[in-house]
Amino acid sequence: MSRAARLEALREAGFLSEEDAALLSRDAPLLEDGTAEAMIENVVARFELPLGIGLNFVINGRDRVVPMAVEEPSIVAAVSHAANIVRQAGGFEAGADRSVMTAQIQVVGSPDPVVARERILAARQELLAQADALEPGMVRRGGGATDLEVRHLRPRGSASRYEEMLVVHVYVDTCDAMGANLINTVAEGLAERVEKLSGGRVFLRILSNLNDRRRVRASCRVPAHLLAWHGFPGDEVARAIERASVFAEQDPYRAATHNKGIMNGIDAVAIATGQDWRAIEAGAHAFAASDGTYGPLARWTLLPDGCLEGVLDMPMAVGTVGGPIRLHPVVQAMHRMLDVRGAADLACVLGSVGLAQNLAAIKALGTTGIQKGHMALHARSVAATAGALGDEVELVAAELIAAGQIKVAVATERLRALREARQPRAVGDGSA
Ligand code: MEV
User: Fold this and answer.
1) Is residue 374 annotated as a catalytic residue, yes or no?
2) Which of 328, 335, 374, 378 is labelled catalytic?
3) Is residue 198, in this structure, part of any structural domain at all?
4) Using 50, 70 and 90 to split pLDDT, how confident is the model at 67?
C-alpha cells in the first residue's frame, strides 16, 4: 500500500477519524514552532522519526492498531507478524497494577537512625495526609498516598565515603498520570517534616524509576502448530523459543539482548504516545536485575499440552494525561487511534507489544536467524542512503536483495543505471 492508502484503510476501519487521517497525511511539519519552543529549551529545529503501525494485535479481546515511532527497519514488520500468530490463538491477556509510584527522601546524620525510623513510621498517617494535601486533585480522581516505608541503609564495605542513611519511601497512586511531577512535589513537600522527625538532614527528594509496584503483566498461549515457519515444524520452533528463553534466564549477557528486543517495541510505542521512555527503560532494567542477577523480562515455556506460553512482567509507568500529551498533535492523534482508556490500558498495550516483539525476535533467532529478513528490509534504507527517491527505493532495494549485496556503493551504481534507463530518448536527434 502507499502511505495514503494505509491512512485511508485505517480511517475506513474506524481507527482514525477523518481529521486525524488528514493531519497525518500533511507533509508540513506537524509540531508548530511555538509548541516546540514550549516543550524544551534552545530549540533550533524539529526532529522526525518514521511513524509506522503495528498490526494484528488483539489485547484483552480488543483489536488494536499500535503506533510505533522508530528508526530500525523490521521492528514494525516483526511485531505485526508475531501479533498475527498470537491473534490466531485468541490474542494477548494483559493486566496492570494501580499507578503506584515511589517518592524517595534521603535522610543522613540522624543521631540514632533506628529511633528516627520508628518516629517516622509512627507519623505515617500524618505524612500520608500531608502528601494528599499537596495533591488534592489526585485524591479527587481516586488516587493519593497509599503507604509509607522507611529503609535503613547501612554502609556496605569499608569505604569511608559510604554513610548510614534512612530512605523514606512514600507510595502514591497517580491514576492516569505518569506522575513524575506529582511524586517529586510530594517528596519535596514532606522533606521538612521528615527532617524534623529524623533529627538528621534531608538531601535527595525525587521519585524512584524502579516502579516495582506499578507493573504490567502480559501473556499469551500459542499452540505449537501455529509457529511452523520456513519449513521448521511448529513443535521445533516452540522448543527453540523455550531454549532461547532459558538461555536468557541463565546468562545476563543474553538477557540484555533479549530485553533490548522487548524494548524495541515498547520504546517505539512509548515515543509515539508521548511517554518518558527513559523512565520506562530505567525501570525495566533495574527490575530485570532486582533479584541480584540480571534476567529476562519475558519468559517462554512449552507446556505439556503442546502450547507455548509467554509471560512478560515489568514496571510500566505511563500516563494518558499531562506531559507531551497536552501539546503534541501527533501524540494526541495516536491516543485517539489507540482509543486508550487510561494509563492501565496503555500499559497493557505496551506490555503486549513487548511480548510480541520478543516472540518475533527469538522465533527468528531460533530458526532462520534474523539477518535474512532484516537485510531485506535494511535494503530500503540503504537504497535511500544512496539517494533513491519515490519508487526508486523499492526498485533499487529489490536489486540489492537479488544480488545479495546490501551495500551503499552497489545501491549508488544500481540507482545510476536505473535513472539512465528511465531517461527519455531524444527524438529527432538527426541520427535517422
Ligand atoms: C535487535 O534490535 C534485537 C534482537 O537482538 C533481540 C534479540 O536478540 O532477542 C534481535
Assistant:
1) yes
2) 374
3) yes
4) very high
Tell me whether residue 72 is one of the annotated catalytic residues.
yes
**Residue 428 pLDDT > 70:** no
Same structural domain, 199 and 91? no
Angle between helices 329-338 and 18-25 (to 10 degrees): 140
Ligand 1 atom 6 nearest Cα = 261
The stretch 170-193 carries a mean pLDDT of: 97
User: Does residue 236 carry a catalytic annotation?
Assistant: no
Q: Which domain holds residue 175?
A: 100-208
Residue 32's pLDDT is what? 86
Number of domains in the chain: 3
Q: Ligand 1: which atom is nearest the Cα of residue 370?
A: 10
Q: Looking at 208, 230, 248, which one is the last position of a domain?
A: 208
Q: For the chain, first and last CA: distance in Å?
A: 43
> Is residue 426 scored above 80 in pLDDT?
no
Same domain, 116 and 39: no
394 and 305 part of one domain: no
CATH number at residue 356: 3.90.770.10
CA gap 268, 79 in Å, rounded: 11
Give the Å distance between the CA of 361 and the centre of ligand 1: 6
pLDDT of residue 325: 85
Site to probe by mutation for ligand 1, drawn from 365, 368, 378 as the one with most ligand atoms within 8 Å of Cβ, is: 365
Q: How far is the CA of 258 from the centre of ligand 1 (A)?
A: 6
* Per-residue model confidence (pLDDT) at position 229: 92
Residue 358 Cα: closest atom of ligand 1: 9
| 76 and 199 belong to one structural domain | no
Quickly state the pLDDT bin for 431 (edges 50, 70, 90). very low
Nearest-angstrom CA–CA distance, 376 and 398: 8
Pure H helices in 89-173: 113-122, 124-134, 136-140
Contact 216, 314 (CB under 8 A): yes
- The whole-model pTM stands at 0.90
Is residue 6 in some structural domain? no
To the nearest whole number, what is the mean pLDDT of the chain? 94
| Predicted local confidence at residue 425, as pLDDT | 63
Maximum Cα interatomic distance, the chain, rounded to a whole number of Å: 105
Find the mean pLDDT for residues 412-421.
94
Burial class (CB in 10 A: 0-12, 13-18, 19+), 141: middle
Cα separation, 169 vs 150, whole angstroms: 6
List the catalytic residue out of 97, 276, 281, 413. Answer: 276
Residues 163 and 279 in one domain: no
Check whether residue 274 and residue 402 sit in a common domain: no
Identify whether 299 is part of a domain: yes
- In-domain check, residue 413: yes
